Amino acid sequence: MRNSGIDHLFSAIVETSFGAVGIRTEDKRVRELVYLPATFNEKAPTDAIAERTVQQIERYLDDADFRFDLPLATVGTAFQQKVWQAISSIPRGSVLTYGDIARHIRTAPRAVGQACGANWFPIVIPCHRVTATGGLGGFGNTDDEAGFHLGVKRWLLAHEKVEGYQR
């Protein structure tokens, strides 16, 4: 089995050009989205919300202008939700820095970065559109320049045709 036998944790797994996206659903809502390496096999949806999520992720992968409309579980602190709301307003093709978001919601850039890392719904809440002042910044609680997560961030920014990121 290519995926270490943990595919049962997901209601569906979508293969992508950058790896895969694991989808967890609960109580007719998306509970979590997880970026997974290419070692994970695609998994057919086990419920209607997982099917809807797969369809929307596939539409986004075909058209970066696609806008998600999914029932998301209520997770995170009030502060994290405030950051995620600010991130959700960043249009496709644009990025803001951690400092830009921090100034907008009157907090510190590091706190914005921590909230980005705690995002339960990456791709839907586009934390990949938040970068450091001097470069890419972190992603998925990692800043390993050659690591999987920053590779995903680069792919997403290129997919959305952000200047300076090509596939």
TrEMBL record:
GO BP field: DNA repair; methylation
Alphabetically ordered keywords of this record: DNA damage, Methyltransferase, Transferase
Repeat among keywords: no
Coiled coil ranges: none
Domain of life: Bacteria
Xref: InterPro entries: MethylDNA_cys_MeTrfase_DNA-bd, MethylDNA_cys_MeTrfase_DNAb, MGMT_N_sf, WH-like_DNA-bd_sf
A molecular function (GO) term: methylated-DNA-[protein]-cysteine S-methyltransferase activity
Signal sequence annotation: none
Sequence ranges assigned to domain Methylated-DNA-[protein]-cysteine S-methyltransferase DNA binding in this UniProt record: 78-162
NCBIfam families on file: ogt
Name of protein: Methylated-DNA--protein-cysteine methyltransferase
Protein source organism: Oxalicibacterium solurbis
Taxonomic lineage of the native organism: Bacteria, Pseudomonadati, Pseudomonadota, Betaproteobacteria, Burkholderiales
Gene field: ogt
